[in-house]
Design a protein that fits this description.
- The protein has three domains: 61 residues, no CATH class; 188 residues, Rossmann fold (3-Layer(aba) Sandwich); 53 residues.
- It is 39% helix and 12% strand.
- It has 15 helices and ten strands.
- Strands 5-4-6-7-3-8-9-10 form an eight-stranded mixed beta sheet.
- The chain starts with a strand and ends with a helix.
Length: 365
């Protein structure tokens, strides 16, 4: 069945027939495009694209002829003030996910948008990127980035009340012109709400997308995939662009690439936990979960005792405040199992429903 697709950048609808004619007229450019992948049998690949995804092939060739500066301007324009979005950055460990996510933050900042990050505090963050404990607090028109999102918002705990309430904001981002930037190694590790609301997928090398051969989104990886950490595929609804030379943020340092570096010194761990509670406004449950993500596994009651002693030592005449806040941190793998009132079969049914949300559906392919 013939397909027709509207391309936002071209400002026109593209059909399979016109796309095939374009590929036939630009076969030499197509050969040049495939050279970067060291493809042996280019004729087979060109035939597959010609028959299965001619529109995607046409858009890839048009983007191939854009300059690096033109591609960057396209992405910056997508981050402009007044547009809400859910962006997911996916790639392997060491593939440049964090650098790319911070680069998007920098470009958004250059567009005049307020920038925030949540989850685990990062002292190396630039001064214009403000930390907030709860993503819901991000103001209208702002950009919010959650480093290591799969740790903070895991698919394993997507049905928990705190996480569900916190991520309900994803469905109303466009009303407040807010942008949420998430990052992950594997799409299935993220809370399903990200797949349901995602409008832009940013691919780095070798992300774990778990796609089957019939999924249209697999074509993106097969023929447009980034081949090194300098490459970035920015795939939005209605258009995409492939950067082969992605710059680093102006403020980049290695500290920003490992926000979840384990804390091995027990004294430093207690100092950090107390700082989260006293200065960052975390409640005890949030402290327990962040510290678990940093490799320090203690019960919530143990942290209450440790923080309580520190609080009394500093404030002998006051009572330690019992904060009641929405928890925005995931249930860590080292947490105790949560007791459920549901029947044994219910969680399995919910998990199966979650996995039915395909990446191709999320991107509107």
């Amino acid at each position: 069945m013939a397909q027709t697709l509207y391309d936002e950048l071209l400002g026109m609808c593209i059909g399979d027939t016109s796309a095939r004619e374009f590929l036939e007229d630009n076969e030499c450019i197509w050969d040049q495009y495939l050279e970067r992948y060291n493809v042996v049998d280019r004729d087979v690949i060109k035939y597959q694209i010609y028959m299965k995804s001619p529109i995607l092939g046409m858009r890839a060739l048009i983007d191939y002829q854009r300059t690096k500066e033109e591609k960057i301007e396209l992405i910056k324009n997508d981050l402009r003030v007044g547009r809400g979005n859910v962006i997911v950055v996916a790639g392997k460990v060491g593939g440049g996910k964090s650098a790319t996510a911070w680069l998007l933050m920098q470009w958004a900042h250059e567009q005049g948008r307020e920038c925030y990050f949540s989850g685990i505090p990062q002292p190396a963050a630039p001064e214009w990127a403000h930390y907030i404990a709860d993503p819901v607090e991000a103001p209208v028109g702002s950009v919010l980035y959650v480093p290591e999102t799969a740790i903070i918002y895991s698919s394993r705990t997507s049905m928990s009340a705190g996480q569900r309430d916190s991520l309900s904001m994803l469905f109303t981002l466009r009303h407040g012109a807010r942008t949420f930037i998430a990052e992950t190694q594997a799409m299935r590790a993220l809370d399903v709400q990200f797949l349901r609301t995602m409008q832009t997928l940013v691919l780095k090398p070798e992300p774990m997308l778990m796609l089957d051969d019939k999924d249209p989104a697999k074509v993106i990886l097969d023929y447009l995939k980034p081949i090194d950490k300098e490459s970035t595929l920015y795939y939005a609804k209605g258009w995409f662009t492939l950067l082969t030379e992605t710059p680093l943020p102006d403020f980049w340092s290695d500290e920003l690439s490992i926000p979840c570096k384990p804390i091995t010194d027990s004294r430093k761990a207690e100092d950090y936990a107390y700082w989260l509670y006293r200065d960052q406004g975390f409640n005890l449950r949030m402290v327990q979960r962040v510290m678990a993500a940093l490799g320090v596994a203690k019960r919530e009651s143990e942290w209450e005792e440790i923080i309580g002693r520190r609080w009394i030592a500093e404030h002998p005449e006051t009572v330690m405040p019992q904060r009641i806040m929405q928890s925005t941190v995931m249930e860590s793998p080292v947490m105790e199992p949560q007791i459920s009132n549901t029947t044994p079969n219910e969680p399995i049914t919910k998990n199966k429903q979650i996995q039915k949300v395909k990446l191709s559906v999320a991107l509107g392919l």
